[in-house]
Amino acid sequence: MLETLSVVMLGLRHGYVKYTWFDIGCQLAAVVGIILWQICNSPAIGVVAAVTIDFIGALPTFRHAWLEPGEETWLTYGLSCLGSVFALGALTDYNWISMPYAVYLVVVNALLSALIIIRARTKTVVS
């Protein structure tokens, strides 16, 4: 948590902050998802909520990677994808509660890496 807080603080201080209505809508949807998760108090709902909340939170990153692929680093998402593959391999019990989030992380990070690489090449060729 300290690392995440540090990144947020440094980003707010040194980064370029520009929120769109899309960003705000995604954040509000994620907050609603967290509230519903806490109210239901079920492992299955928790997994579905975690994947849904994370995906909603990733949408602005997908949008940004599409619009400005040069401002994102594909290697970060590629390494996260690889880490998630290792997390899947480290599971001791493969079931519908333990696997979905790790599988989701593999997919979303692979997609982000591919999007950044493809869009950067496409944008360079078009420009």
Low-confidence stretches: none
Count of separate DSSP helical elements? 5
Question: What percentage of residues falls in helices of 4 or more residues?
Answer: over 70%
Radius of gyration: 16 Å
Span of the ends, CA to CA: 40 Å
Derived from helix and strand composition plus strand pairing, the structural class reads: mainly alpha
* Number of individual domains: 1
Strand content: under 5%
| Average pLDDT taken over every residue | 86
Query: How would a crystallographer describe the biggest sheet?
Result: none
Short description, anyone?
The chain has helices at 2-14, 21-40, 43-67, 74-90, 100-126.
Which features characterize this protein?
5 helices, single chain, mainly alpha, 127 residues, 80% helix
How is the secondary structure organized here?
Layout lengths: L1 H13 L6 H20 L2 H25 L6 H17 L9 H27 L1
Helix pairs in contact: 2-3, 3-5, 4-5
Question: Explain this structure to me?
Answer:
80% of the residues lie in helices and 0% in strands. Helix 2 packs antiparallel against helix 3 and helix 3 runs parallel beside helix 5 (100-126). The mean pLDDT is 86. The protein has helices at residues 2-14, 21-40, 43-67, 74-90, 100-126. With 127 residues, it is mostly helical. The protein is built from 5 helices and no strands.
